Amino acid sequence: MRGFLFDLDGTMYTDAGAVPGALETIGALRSRRIPFRFVTNTTGRPRSKLVERLRGYGLEVTADEILTPVRAAVVLCQEQGYRPVAPYVPEATLEDLQGLDLVAGTTGRAATARPGAVIIGDLGDLWTYELLQEAFGFLLDGVELVALSRDRYWLKGNQLVLDAGPFVAALEYASSRTARVTGKPTRQFYDAAVKSLGLPPDTSPGDIAMIGDDLWSDVRGAQEAGCQGWLVRTGKFRDEQLSESGVVPDRVLGSVAERSRRLDLRAGSGGDRRRERRDRRQRGPPVGLCPLGGRHRQMLGRQQRRRPRNGLENPLRQCPGRLRGRGRSLNAASTLGSCT
Ligand SMILES: [Mg+2]
């Protein structure tokens, strides 16, 4: 792989602390000069606090290495000329909205004029009916709806709790408007993240992996942007969600630490070859068509090519229950798949 994007909450750390081995993974990337960025939908705290938290775990990072949807929202509002804007984010996060004229929402300042947009982030238990009603009122007046993320939930302590997504959905439903999302899984956010890696322009996005614990924002979003989406079994990961979601990660890792142990860090090297071998093993041998319309593995195809003995029709063409191959007796139904 040529570069990596890492989710933070649930991937690099949880409320219990840093995920074991996560720091070593980042250390290995730094020592090999493989570029990476942290891409998070966390909007409950400003970027400076994220840097502080990572440093508290012993991981030296700069604010520039962390991409959040809050800064993307600032760019969007400035480009679109939304002024002023009403933010619904925790007070601490307001510092990342510098550059915008802020009113109403969680600013504590009354709106003297109709805002150009409302910005919805993760307010957690700070949400009140009054705040939702205020945002809804703005939307009814034709104000733009900007969502920092659509994430459904996240792991707080040992409990899954509502993220910004359900509140965005409620406001969309009530106002019949559609939010403009600035964070993962949007294509613009991923394109900006890939660009920030500073790789040569001819680098294929397929050589970049996004590693995270969210099936939709991290895995599917990255895949839709052309990158690989790797899921970790930490944070909010749930087996049943993986099987029911319809999302197919390019890889599923025990944790972000597995990346440095199992996967080769050198671009396009042994790691890719090992992956190919593993994928071939998982796929099994090619499947041949059974004369009766069933699907048998390659052995049946080789058996079929044998010449009939004693001028008789090759019994294998009749697809019997037992096949002979390499001195072993194989049961067609159980070993090679049923044809009837
Ligand atoms: Mg996460």
Keywords summarizing the entry:
alpha/beta, 3 domains, disordered C terminus, globular, Rossmann fold, 340 residues, 12 helices, four-stranded parallel sheet, six-stranded parallel sheet, binds magnesium ion, 18 strands
Q: Which whole number gives the mean pLDDT?
A: 82
Q: What is the class of the largest domain in the CATH system? A: Alpha Beta
Integer tally of domains: 3
Strand-residue fraction? 15-25%
Q: Radius of gyration from the CA trace?
A: 26 Å
Identify the overall geometry. globular
Count of DSSP strands: 18
| Largest sheet: spatial strand order | 5-4-1-12-13-14
Bound molecules: magnesium ion
- Please tell me the CATH architecture of the largest domain by its name: 3-Layer(aba) Sandwich
Indicate the low-confidence ranges by residue numbers.
Answer: 264-270, 285-340
CATH superfamily of the largest domain: HAD superfamily/HAD-like
Order of helices and strands: EEEHEHEHEEHEEEHEHEHEHEHHEEHEEH
CATH fold group of the largest domain:
Rossmann fold
Q: In terms of structural class, how would the helical and strand content be classed?
A: alpha/beta
Oligomer: single chain
Helical content, roughly?
Answer: 25-40%
CA(first)-CA(last) distance: 44 Å
Short structural summary:
The protein has about 350 residues and is an alpha/beta fold.
Give a verbal description of the structure.
The strands form 6 sheets. The protein has a 6-stranded parallel sheet with strand order 5-4-1-12-13-14. A 4-stranded parallel sheet has the order 6-7-8-11, sandwiched between helices. It is an alpha/beta fold and 340 residues long. Strand 15 (287-289) and strand 16 (295-297) form a beta hairpin. It has 3 domains: 3-68 and 185-281, Rossmann fold; 69-181, HAD superfamily/HAD-like (Rossmann fold, 3-Layer(aba) Sandwich), CATH 3.40.50.1000; 287-336, no CATH class. It is globular. Helix 4 packs across helix 5 (165-175). The protein contains 12 helices and 18 strands.
